[in-house]
Structure formats: C-alpha cells, structure tokens
Amino acid sequence: MRFFKRAYIRYVLHRYAIKHEIWEAVTSKLVLLVGLTAVEKAHLRELSTLLLHGKRIFGVQGLLLTEEMRVLVAATACLPILHLGISLFAEWTDIVVYPSVFRVSRDETDAAGVVHHEERVLSGESWGRGPVIVAWDEVERDSVQGLPGHNVIIHEIAHKLDMLNGTANGMPPLHVTMPIPEWSTTLSAAYEELNRRLNHHHPTCVNPYAATSPAEFFAVFSEYFFCAPDILHGHFHGVYRQLCLYYRQDPFLRLSAA
Ligand SMILES: [Zn+2]
User: Fold this and answer.
1) Which molecular function terms from Gene Ontology are attached (predicted)?
2) 216 Cα to the center of ligand 1, angstroms
3) How many CB atoms are closer than 10 A to CB 177?
4) Can you give the pTM of this predicted structure?
5) Which residues are in the CB-under-5-Å shell of ion ligand 1?
6) What is the DSSP annotation of 42-89?
7) What's 209's domain CATH number?
8) Phi, psi for 247 (deg, rounded to 5)
C-alpha cells in the first residue's frame, strides 16, 4: 500500500508541479519565507503542489482565484507543516476564500446551557473536518507586510493541527519526544500571565485575542512564531521553544541568519 502511495505522490509531483515562474513570482515576495534554505523551499514547493492537487482552493462571492493566488494560499498553508508532512492535512478538503471579511450568524450554547444567537464578522475560520475559510484581502496584506505577528492562514492552519486530537484546546498531538507536562505547564503559565496583564490593563507585546481561550492562544502564538519570531523568542521564550519542538522549525534562527 505504502509503495503505491509513494508512487502516486511521485506521479503528482512530476505531473502537476507548480510552474517554476509562478512559484518564483509568488514566493520571492513572501516575507514569511525569508531565511528558508533552498532545500526547504524545494520541499515547500512539493507540499504546495500536493495541496493544490489534493484540495479544492476556490473563491466565493464572485472572487475568482488566479493560479498565483492559489499558490500563495498553498505555500502559506504548507509552511507550518514543512517538517511535519502533508498527511496532517488528510482530514479536510477545501480552502474557501472570501473577497473580504465575512459575516457568520449561528446559535452558540454557553456553559450554563443557554443558547445565544451570535452574529460575527470574521477574517478566517476553521471547522474540524470542514473547510478552512479565509478573507483574501487579509491574505494579501499578510503576504507583504501586514501587522506584525498576523497571518490569517497560519492562524487557521494552527486550529486545524490543534483539532487533530479532538476539539481545539491549544494542544495538538505532540511528538513522542515532547513531554506533555512540559508543553502544558509552559503554555498554561504564559496564558495565565497574559490574562493577568490584560486584566490589570498592562501593555502586552502580542495580540490580546490570544487570551480569549487556549485554542486561540496556540493559533495566535503560531502566527507570531512564523511571522514575528523575535517577539516570542524575546518575551515568551519557553513557549517559543515548545513551538520549535512541535513545528520542528526555528524561524528566529533562520531570520537572524538571513
Ligand atoms: Zn482562531
């Protein structure tokens, strides 16, 4: 079975490889990829090819995606799994791209069992086995030089990884070499400290949205990890080290060396 799977992957990579000109045009402008080695970039291109071939990436509300736009979405989505593998994306099939922020309305049940009707405006959303949903204007802004530590695709992919072992709770399935107590003690302490600072109206160097739940903490800190690693490395070093172990990447080191 494995042999056939490997053979199929080789076939897809050969038959559907992202065209060199398109790959270069898109990735040369992507600040997120600064410092990746040539080997890592080549591997990212392979993962992006597999993603584009295996998933549907499409626009809604009249948004037509060009090949360049789809490659940009795929390359960004694959950065977190660069050293984890495409198999972590096996349980879902669609990336839906809205032209801009989108409105959702749904019923939510609170801890007391009371159902509230909520209307919210979102720039991204992830469902367990459902689609990743993002707003194109946010994706475009993040790809050049958006807000420090902001990337809607990385955020939603982090939720997807978190949900691989059930509901999103801020702890994706860890590698066997990573002690769970270390992850949970380190991230809990940082989460509580962040909430303490916000409750006392003290300034923080990260997006306060990280303090809304452990799941959002992991997603927002994953954004900083890839987009502004210096902030995490300097102010949340323990969390930074845990994320290095999980993602098997060291963006601070590669940016420092670039
Ligand atoms: Zn989120």
Assistant:
1) aminopeptidase activity; metallopeptidase activity
2) 5
3) 6
4) 0.91
5) 216, 219
6) HHHHHHHHHHHHHSEEEE-TTPPPPHHHHHHHHHHHHGGGTTT-GGGG
7) 3.40.390.10
8) -80, -10
Strands 124-126 and 94-98, how do they pair?
unpaired
Rg for the chain (alpha carbons), in Å?
18
135-194 pLDDT tens trace: 999 999 999 876 789 999 999 999 999 999 988 999 999 999 999 999 999 999 999 999
Count of domains forming the chain: 1
Distance CA 50, CA 37 (A): 20
Helix residue ranges per DSSP H, the chain: 2-15, 20-27, 38-54, 67-78, 136-145, 152-162, 180-199, 214-227, 229-235, 237-247, 251-257
Contact call for residues 133 and 96 (beta carbons, < 8 A): yes
Q: How far is the CA of 123 from the centre of ligand 1 (A)?
A: 10
Residue 14 is encoded by which pair of tokens? 């050969």
Query: Are the beta carbons of 79 and 36 closer than 8 angstroms?
Result: no
Q: Name the pLDDT band for 103 (thresholds 50, 70, 90).
A: confident
Q: Ligand 1: distance of its center to the CA of 214 in Å?
A: 10
pLDDT at 5: 79
Average pLDDT score, the chain: 91
Give the tens place of pLDDT for each residue, 60-93.
999 999 999 999 999 999 999 999 999 999 999 9
Q: Tell me the CA–centroid distance for residue 138 and ligand 1, in Å.
A: 14
**How far from the centroid of its chain's Cα atoms is residue 66's Cα?**
22
DSSP at 5: H
Q: Which tens digits make up the pLDDT trace of 15-54? A: 888 999 999 999 998 989 999 999 999 999 999 999 999 9
